[in-house]
Amino acid sequence: MKNGAEEVTQAIRKSISDFNLDDDYHTVRTKCMGRCDDAPIAMVSPDNIWLKNINPYQCDLLLSEIELNEVDKSDNFLYKMGDSTINSNSIPTKYRTKIKKQNA
Questions:
Q1: What are the chain's domains?
Q2: For residues 14 and 40, what is the distance between their CA atoms, to the nearest angstrom?
Q3: Three-state SS at 27
Q4: Per-residue pLDDT tens digits for 10-26
């Protein structure tokens, strides 16, 4: 895992346990999700909320914001599926080659 993703995974799992939310949340490691410049990222289901640039020290706060339905106000909020805008200046990895070819 890149950009500290393993540390974030462990911190999120600890936060879930510390808040006694083991029955409400489950974490799954994934391979590349195409957002290298925003990594590490997390996707919260079933709401399909994506978070970016997470560090291990933010996990308690992020979990609290998720629980309070305020995560969309977080600096780590990337987007929610269906939104027309993404809170990032980066181009998703899978589109970089295609965009470069079109601009050439």
A1: 5-103 (3.40.30.10)
A2: 17
A3: coil
A4: 999 999 999 999 999 88
Q: What is the pLDDT of residues 40-72, one digit of tens each?
A: 988 888 788 899 999 999 999 999 999 999 998
Number of residues assigned to the chain: 104
Residue that is written with structure tokens 């393993």 in the block:
6
Q: Which residue has the tokens 């977080």?
A: 74
User: What does DSSP say about strands 77-80 and 49-51: parallel, antiparallel, or unpaired?
Assistant: antiparallel
Q: What count of other Cβ atoms lies within 10 Å of the Cβ of residue 39? A: 19
- Whether the predicted model's global pTM rises above the 0.90 cut: no
Structure tokens at 74: 């977080």
Q: Of 26, 14, 25, which Cα lies nearest the Cα of 58?
A: 14
Angle at 92 between CA 88 and CA 96, to 5 degrees: 125
